[in-house]
């Protein structure tokens, strides 16, 4: 995908499919890429998890794809596209929302808050798939799409060590309170385990 050059966004789609198939381990029938021209709240990319039916129209990851190289490295552009496009594609089943261009993957929570922006041209595949790497995309792997894995998965968010974070918030290890959540989640009391996955859309 890094070497792709073309004039049409749809021409980029096969490279996106190969990325998620060969790097992240998805069966190709679990990777849905929608051609432009479709109406309604339809994401460019939708990933089916390993534990749901292919006909369920349930996607644990949705994404917006742009052909311009590095366009999603602009915070302002990401915010604009979240409000304009991707926000409406998130459902109660969404764990991650992605912005993808040929050299960038930006990972967001379902509420639009950002987890990380990964510059693909600056990292090896080994780094991208290592759970311990600073710019790891390991949580997106097909094997991690199973509900039991998602409920307890932890990963890095904005410089916070991996064991302190989950897909929908940040766990303060000292106080074991949840921060970065919706207002109703600010509970100042100890919790014994990581919180279960929130299913509320933003």
Explain the overall architecture:
The protein starts with 8 loop residues before the first helix and ends in a 23-residue tail after the last strand. The strands form 2 sheets. A 6-stranded mixed beta sheet has the order 1-2-3-4-5-6, with helices on one face. It is of the alpha+beta class and 202 residues long. It is globular, with a radius of gyration of 16 Å. Residues 151-201 have low confidence and may be disordered. Helix content is 18%, strand content 18%. It has helices at residues 9-23, 75-84, 125-129, 147-152; strands at 31-33, 45-47, 61-65, 96-101, 104-108, 114-119, 165-166, 169-172, 177-179. The chain folds into 2 domains: 9-135, tt1808, chain A; 154-195, no CATH class. The longest helix is centred in the N-terminal third of the chain and has 15 residues, at 9-23. A hairpin with a 2-residue loop joins strand 7 (165-166) and strand 8. The chain is built from 4 helices and 9 strands.
Which structural traits does this protein have?
alpha+beta; six-stranded mixed sheet; 202 residues; globular; 2 domains
Average pLDDT works out at 76
- Kindly report the spatial arrangement of strands forming the biggest sheet: 1-2-3-4-5-6
Low-confidence stretches: 151-201
The name CATH uses for the topology of the largest domain is: tt1808, chain A
Number of strands: 9
Give the overall shape.
globular
- In this structure, how is the largest beta sheet organized? 6 strands, mixed
- Following the backbone from N to C, one meets helices and strands in this order, namely HEEEHEEEHHEEE
Individual helix count: 4
The percentage helix is 10-25%
CATH architectural group of the largest domain: Alpha-Beta Complex
- Briefly note the structural class of the backbone: alpha+beta
Share of β-strand residues? 15-25%
